[in-house]
Amino acid sequence: MPLKVYNTLTRKKELFEPIEPGVVRMYVCGPTVYADAHIGHAMSAIVFDVIRRYLEYKGYKVIHVMNFTDVDDKIINKARETGQDPFELAGRYIEKFLQQMDALNVKRPTVMPRVSGTIDEIIAMIQELIAKGYAYEVNGNVFFRVRRDKDYGKLSRRKLDESLRGEREKFAEELKEDPLDFALWKAQKTPDEPAWESPWGLGRPGWHIECSAMVRKHLGPTIDIHGGGNDLIFPHHENEIAQSESCNDAPLAKYWLHNGMVQLSGEKMSKSLGNMVTIDEFLAQHDADVFRLLVMGSHYRKPLVYDEQVVPQAEKALQRLLSALRPSHGQLTEGPEAEALLEAARLAKKRFEEAMDDDFNTAAALGHIFDLVKAINTARDAGVGGEPFAQAQATLKELTGVLGLRLQPKEAQQSDAAPFIDLLVEVRSALRKARQWELADMIRDRLAELGVILEDTRDGTTWSWKR
């Protein structure tokens, strides 16, 4: 069955055919790094990680680019509030985000550009837009002429004068030719905000032009997949299309894929609303596989409702998967029971692929995996062992691996972590002897967040896992 994907641009499922046979160029909008990432960020990262893994499973080479927005009003304001350098602040959150993605078993993108490292390309793109009449400069600011782009609104299906009037960009409206125009370059307002030299004076990029420049720099004028949360469809992705296609005279992306939002109490979860569950908070209490199962239990385009009921359900689902990895001591390697198990494995793989080929339907794919789990456990009880049993378990590991599940019993994870915990405890003891209490306490607190409890005694420090 050929792969079909739902294209937000056309509002229908389409046969997936990359521009270059065998190669997929995929750009996914990454986080603005000014605060701890929440499980909404984790959901989007996992969705596109699974998409990438399945494309690779099908034999494609995937060039995956995800950006970090490290130049932004929110970062500048947070740096002012805390008295930090904005780039050091952003850098720390980037490193923390990457560690969290590692913990969630999200494969690192092929390229991870930052806005601050793309300024020359951004300026060059703005100059091209000005030369073509799509942009204009006023008092050191540069704006994009929205009405000049004849098909503006084709992604979000919004009409200019009706739908956009209430959602126009408010930045420097008094300087614009038209209230709907949006900023490509912002003149520096205060000496303490980051700024770069440009043909229009000291300033910094607008939000949307950053991604347009990074796409073109790392993947070219037209890519196969552009992804992100559905909250980015307008204005961010709409404006990306306007800039890139006006500049490059070519489509920005062949397929636009958007994931739904995480909802708490019926509301979209966001930093601005303050209704967050951070990634650290979740992982302190639950296995990373539990969150992956939460995400994959519904279609990626739908909202993920997060409440008290869904997490225990995912915990039970993980235990069911782990149950199928227990060894068999049976001796049956032939006969109807063994044949039934091999047929169940074959069918599970076939139906798994059919589900994933239908716009990455992970919920249906998981259903077929659980059919295999039931068959494995039934075969074990019937005395099946040896090669048929090993083959069925290998199929299970292969399919769950495509979904990024590690399927490690907690005891195994804790055993793997023990040498690193011992090292941290040793470092903390040395810091305490050197009277560097703040650093020592930081290690203790971070270990506690990860479920490790330290106890200081006369004979030294011991540690144990939180019960």
Shape: globular
CATH superfamily of the largest domain: HUPs
Q: Order of helices and strands, N to C? A: EEEHEHHHEEHEEHEHEEEHHEHHHHHHEE
Q: What's the N-to-C terminus distance?
A: 47 Å
According to CATH, the fold-level topology of the largest domain is: Rossmann fold
Largest sheet: 4 strands, parallel
Query: What's the architecture of the largest domain, going by CATH?
Result: 3-Layer(aba) Sandwich
Please tell me the total number of domains.
3
Q: For the residues shown, what is the average pLDDT?
A: 92
Gyration radius, in Å: 25 Å
Oligomer: single chain
Assigned CATH class of the largest domain: Alpha Beta
Low-confidence stretches: none
Q: Strand order across the biggest sheet? A: 4-3-9-10
The count of strands amounts to 15
| SS element count, helices | 15
From the helix content, strand content and strand pairing, which structural class follows? alpha/beta
Percent in helix: 40-55%
Strand portion: 5-15%
Structural overview:
The chain has 15 helices and 15 strands. The protein has helices at residues 39-57, 73-82, 86-103, 119-131, 160-163, 207-219, 233-248, 279-285, 288-296, 310-323, 336-357, 362-381, 386-402, 410-433, 437-449; strands at 4-7, 12-15, 23-28, 61-66, 135-138, 141-144, 182-187, 203-205, 223-229, 253-259, 262-264, 267-268, 304-305, 452-457, 460-465. It has a four-stranded parallel beta sheet with strand order 4-3-9-10, sandwiched between helices.
